[in-house]
User: What shape does this take?
Amino acid sequence: MGQNCYITFSSIHQAIRAEKLLEKKRYAYKMVPVPRSISSSCGSALQCTCQDITALGNFLGDKNIEIEGLYRVKEAKLRALSVEKLS
Amino acid sequence: MTGNKNNIYFDNAATSWPKPETVYHSAEIHMRSAFGNPGRSGHTRTLAADRLIYRVREKTADFFNIADPARIAFTLNATDALNMAIKGLLEKGDHVLYTAMEHNAVLRPLTRLKTEGIIETTMIPCSDEGDPDLVFLENAYRPSTRLLIINHASNVVGTIVPIKRMIESAHQRGVPALVDTAQSAGCIKIDIQADDIDLLAFTGHKSLLGPTGTGGLYVRPGLDLKPLREGGTGSQSELDLQPENMPERLEAGTLNSTGLAGLLAGIDYIEDRGLDNIHDQEKKIRAYLYERLLDIKGITVFGPPETDRCTCVVSFNLGDTDCGSLGHILENRYGIFCRTGLHCAPYAHRTIGTFPAGTVRISPGIFTKTDDIDYFIKALKEIATLTGI
Assistant: This one.
């Protein structure tokens, strides 16, 4: 069992804008297809560590990125065991 | 000189050619690379396409000084963008003002809506050089006026219209303005914020030097358009209706990412050379062309003589010759390509007094040289002699 954190966006334009803003930042992240256990307007989400998600969310929010939600997902064998909406 | 067939393309106002090498290269690389469908899927190839589309949107926004790139929806061309704005904004009982220099891309959608009893329209007359009657405009507003449509530069005679002044007049009455930049984008500086433009339609394949099938519509924040097309966006798939956020609101179906890759290179090329430098060069070419044309016996040249007021377009007729036949002989005998007839702008031709006969339109491009003009003038002189003018 493991856990991943995700940031979802209102559109792919916002997702790519977020990715661009993070280009020179120290955070570890990648763009991934949104797990179906999370509801999102946009098909791509930013996956990051759960340690960084609050800082990342704040950083992107300050840059007026249209964030839909921050999530913590516990996963095992390609299945979501639990989904927690952080904000 | 008969038989000395060249390959001189003077129809850049229809579509520009040649394109910069980088435009061909960029579109080809995109098509050959395994880019996915932008906005769909979420795998890395799709993300590569998403990043490309983002870059083109950002580049276009910078080019027009648009604060939020998401307010630009990509379209097939300027016609598509104009239809999107007109049909997305207007509702029953609305009144629309437009200039006599408009293209059929504006005239036909308006006429259909008018014929169906949905809208009312008033055409702002223009001088025979293509300048709108601003006094008429001031008196033409009604309480129901919902839109002012302005052709930024005439595709028949090149006349640049004072958009800022006209938009100010519309804004004083709370009326938004739609600017058709098919002939001006990539040719003269357009600044959404300085000119206070509400809706801007542009095409990618003329002076922006991109491939056909590219263009866009800018929509000011706060203006909500009903979508012209509805369908897949790759986002909010659970919704039965088109998403409300831009650009998805107006972008249904797969985008022309190959074309947009080319457009990106086209705008890059313009920025590298400098829009002002390109405009200065085109002004010189137009001034030279205009002056040389006046040398020809029996010629009537239309549009303003001052190059500062024009894009790189000149219309003329030679004596009483048929403009279509003249265009044909220019191609077949001399290898010169130009456009003849009404140029999809029947009221512009009525305005300059050339309806229904039309004119020959010469539209040089950024790669045109004065030698090309000299060759064309020689050809025209020879035709004038042959036809007994």
